[in-house]
Amino acid sequence: VTATLIDGRAMAARLRTSLRCRVDVLARRGIVPHLAFVMLGDSGPARVYASRIEKLAAPLGIQVSRRELPGDVRFSMLEREVGALNADSAVDGILVQMPLPEHLVETHLSSIIEQRKDVDGITIQNAGRLYLGLPGHPPSTAAAILHILTEGNVDIAGRHAVVVGRSTIVGHPIAELLLNRDATVTITHRQTRDLEAATRLADILVVAAGVPGLITPRMISPGVVIIDAGITVSDSGVVGDVDVACWDLASLVTPVPGGVGPVTNAVLLRGVVESAEHRSE
Ligand code: NAD
Questions:
Q1: What are phi and psi of 237, to 5 degrees?
Q2: Residue numbers in the chain where pLDDT is lower than 50
Q3: Ligand 1 atom with the shortest distance to the CA of 265
Q4: For the whole prediction, is pTM greater than 0.85?
Q5: Which of 182, 205, 217, 256 is the most exposed place for a label (fewest CB within 10 A)?
Q6: Could you tell me where the beta strands, DSSP code E, fall in 115-216?
């Protein structure tokens, strides 16, 4: 392998250490950052995720709490619960379990969480801020990818960034973040006719399709920086979207696992600390 592998776990640990200092400063103002999970029914993966975030938050002095609602909850009840968390000035972040149960429409949710507390950037307010290049909370995975590029000293301005995937949680927001940093951005997706023609032009290639092995060596140019956000659980463990044979051509790559994932969790906690720093009292 000739590319430099980015150690996402180490990068996440450094980010969490820097948060520890910010939490200490807040403690002197009597503020304990607080992230509230809203759980809907009994979902195994959602519980595993919440427990993981709790474990990472505890040593930093970030409080995490859970509200439990039934899986068949009516939207009005969810709205009341989120409203109470919005009104509670001691809450800094609100994460409602995703994906929502089928009977709840996600677009409704995207207007009820207060902008400051929307630490995963799902609201229209934060999407608008991202679009306008204003400070806000972008979705954590997209923010994590930008953090990795910045920490890896990757030049963004003027470079050609190609994004594979256009979801509202990864592909589209990272494309906006890169555009805000003056990259020339191409967004590709399932309907793209000639994916290879686009990816070959990339100086920075961000892949978030959820298709293992989608990116092969013939699709990239030597020296490309590759960020692989894909996560698929296969028989051989967790794999990304990029064929590891690409590592011999790239200059910098994120492995899966141990790349974007751990940084995403740390960036989420950074959002909670940032929000606590902006409490109005
Ligand atoms: P999604 O299914 O919502 O979107 C996938 C996108 O990829 C779509 O825009 C689709 O058009 C595009 N796509 C699919 N197949 C393609 C192909 N053959 N060619 C070109 N484009 C194609 O998925 P998502 O929620 O954005 O997640 C994408 C991947 O990122 C998944 O593997 C997911 O598990 C992972 N993910 C990782 C993190 C993290 O923290 N690392 C967070 C969220 C999602």
A1: 110, -160
A2: none
A3: 40
A4: yes
A5: 182
A6: 160-164, 184-188, 204-207
